[in-house]
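Input:
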Amino acid sequence: MVNVLFAAEAERWAEYELPLRSAFRDSGIDVTLSTEHDPVEVDYIVYAPNGPVTDFTPYTKLKAVLSLWAGVETMVGNSTITAPLCRMVDHGLTESMVEWVTGHTLRYHLGIDQFLTQQDGNWRLGFAAPLARDRKVCILGMGALGAACGQALAALNFDVHGWARRAKQVDGVTCHHGGSGLDAAIEGADIVALLLPDTPETENVLDAERMALMARGGYVLNPGRGPLIDDEALIAALDSGQLAHATLDVFRIEPLPATHPFWAHPLVTVTPHIAAETKATTASQVIARNVVRGEAGKPFLHVVDRAAGY
Ligand code: NAP
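Output:
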């Protein structure tokens, strides 16, 4: 018998209980899934940082911590997690992110916002979108999400450039890597989308200098993490016309405080961290797959590199 503790927010239990039970049943493993277990009996913890567990020390026979979140910046520093920490890579979540990034890229590319409020009877000429192939889109982060977004945009003919820590090959995407590759990835970009993890190395990666490298009148999409952008530099770049607009899904403080200048800025769209949610059905299958691997003595999938921070 394998004991799995569900330790996410209380309201998630109603969403996850049946999909997890069904995924474990399909996996053929005899699992006791509960929100309450004697800590010394727990084999795996399905985890979210806003749940009831912060100290993992009592879980003495823990084989893995299985995160429901893709971003693990609040977990990597928890020194009481000594078992492997696996982050969420869920194809439902990836599909959502592809839709969000593609949707907002097309919105900017086609100039959709300017026509939404046009009700004055004035037949304005002067805007026609160039072809996608003439738009450089830069995606910072070529992991599970960035690479999928890059491929979707490349399939629409955008000139997609990606940036990662290590050298990468992604179909249809010109890949850059490391400190020296960053400027080449951003230079002349009409749209920059951030899909990096929040680590000490990625903080303020999009700063005033990098914004100045983008094409004048460029656009920024941030579905990654708030600290990736220098907020003050972003506002200055929007005010100066260097950037035309930004759509931000993630912030240094969430919920974004009502007094934050992003809310009132006419060139900023705020979305409340909804770009991509973990989907209970597909995520449960990922969790069950990892438990099966653990029980078979195979290496876990999606193990976080605690030293790298993601
Ligand atoms: P991932 O698979 O771990 O990919 C991360 C990418 O960032 C990798 O390509 C990695 O390079 C690159 N990277 C990390 N540190 C770097 C550095 N110092 N310099 C250059 N590149 C660096 O993560 P993912 O699943 O794609 O998710 C990305 C982020 O999206 C998550 O961390 C999370 O913050 C965010 N997210 C947001 C939402 C939302 O709803 N807004 C939902 C899910 C996730 P390598 O390939 O060389 O390792």
